[in-house]
Amino acid sequence: MVGEAPAAERQATQYHPLHVRRHIPNALTLGRIALAIAFFAVLTPWRYGSSPLARGSSPDYWLVAAIVLFVIAALTDALDGHLARKWNVVSVFGRIMDPFADKVLVIGAFIYLAGPGFSGGNVQMSGVYPWMAATILARELLVTSIRAAFESRGMSFAATASGKLKMILQSICVPVVLVLMNLETGAGVITMRAIPIVVYATVLVTAWSAIPYVIRAISMSRAGAKL
User: Fold this and answer.
1) What does the pLDDT look like over 18-45, one tens digit per residue?
2) What angle do the packed helices 92-113 and 161-183 form, to 10 degrees?
3) Domain residue ranges in the chain
């Protein structure tokens, strides 16, 4: 046909490295969602009372599997954004799905850690209580709502340093708690003290990280922006 590119040229265009690179960050994002689902699937039937940890032995291989899944998922969070910026292939899909995948993984993890599966009598062995999971969820809803209100009017409302620090600390907190639980039988006093410190520090930083967003929103509103 007139004007149709030769088959060899079409094939070269189709398999151009940039064409392949365009899909890698998004594939990593979708992979993070799949890993989050696998992480939840591992923890769904898990109960501390029937775990080897409750009988004084370790490790618990279900928790080890959960740790591995979460760590790999968290690493894809750092990798997909880095590759998208490095290769200049940032997409609308990535801008939507990347934060969505982050929130599914992290918020879901804290909800599970605050659940009945981690209850050891009157003590939450994970150190995470329902009000903590609710605080983390509330922070995300607040910041997401503020960002959506301003960006819908064409105003930039990018993540702050506090938001990035919050995400890093949350991504460290979950596997650290699970690792410390696995070490409990060998160093019970140390881990029982360390777990609440790690968890409370994470919750406090999470709550604090919303303050810069609120201050910026107030400042932008006073400058003429209307929520």
Assistant:
1) 567 777 888 888 999 999 999 999 999 9
2) 40
3) 15-222
